[in-house]
Amino acid sequence: MNFLYFFLFFCLGCTEVPKKERELTSLKENATEFQEICRRIGKLDMTAVALSSGISESTANRIRDLSEEFGINIPGEALVNKRIFAAADTDDHRLDCFLDACNSKQKIIWVIRGGYGAARVIAPLSCLPKPKVSKTLVGFSDITAMNLFISQKWPSWRVIHATVLVFLNKNSFKNKFETLLDILEGKIDSYEINGIYPLNDKAMPQKSITGKLTGGNLSIIQTSIKTAWEIQTEGKILFVEDNYEAPERIYRAMYHLREAGKFAKVKALVFGHFYGAGDPKRLRLFLKGFAQTLNIPVFVTDKFGHGVFNEPLVYNAEAEIHDNKMTVRLK
């Protein structure tokens, strides 16, 4: 009996060693990949701003450490969190910091996080002259308000719906930075996003659909109606995503956009990931149900939004949907 117990223990122990080794290898690979991403960001000609909510002190400390270790240019003002009406700072101060970034020598302005408050700086910003130098703005979620304003009013700027810097942590960096960094480094002229699937009969034929990109967070897009930065969708491929919205609220917001005429001359609609929307089957039922009410091709994907993936989408870039993928051309 003792011999049998020892034999089983020895065999089980032997099978555990490779598993632990695999886990350690995976951790090392993740750490190496993360460090490479941080090194690449550190080499960019960029600065950071807090246009919406602030980040927690513990996250701010981590970002400070990464900034020092990898030479990432993140000003202290971008890490301020005064929690004024859910925003990082007053409207005036957030606007001033953004204008400082516009007038800085850096070519890229990368937002620290979304949350709430970006729309409140647009009214005063719209009264000011356009900056003399065009730059690249990176952000998503609540930053959709600024993305729409700049992509429509300052078309010489490059605006990218992509991850914010708060995702620079080892638990959430994957599938969010690689293609974006290729764009910011000027390494690619085009890229593909796979997994774009038809959701209604108009999207079924195997023919390509082309148009320039616009869109972003659904709640913010709906909020844009009748503002100075109201989304312009004519001739565009419209992409939408959101987080923590119930399926019926998503349907209601989409119905509002339909009644406001935002699908009248759209080339196609692409639903992204709706994080925290509850039962995926119920969400799919609502999305498909709404897609059937439109006379345009409607697609669905999980490749952008608040979920595991957040592939970059460049406003005003020419995109082509074909064969269950979307090709985005940067030039």
Explained architecture:
With 331 residues, the chain is α/β, with parallel strands linked by helices. Helix 8 packs parallel to helix 9. Mean pLDDT is 92; it is low at 1-15. It has 9 helices and 13 strands. Helix 8 (247-259) links the parallel strand 8 (236-243) and strand 9. The protein has 2 domains: 37-184, Murein tetrapeptidase LD-carboxypeptidase, N-terminal domain (Rossmann fold, 3-Layer(aba) Sandwich); 190-329, LD-carboxypeptidase A C-terminal domain-like (Glucose Oxidase, domain 1). It has an 8-stranded mixed beta sheet with strand order 5-13-12-7-8-9-10-6. The chain has a 5-stranded mixed beta sheet with strand order 1-2-3-4-11, with helices on one face. The protein is globular and about 50 Å long. The termini are far apart. The chain has helices at residues 2-42, 57-70, 91-103, 122-126, 144-153, 178-184, 218-223, 247-259, 280-291, and strands at 46-49, 108-111, 136-139, 158-161, 190-194, 197-198, 209-217, 236-243, 268-275, 298-300, 313-314, 318-322, 325-329.
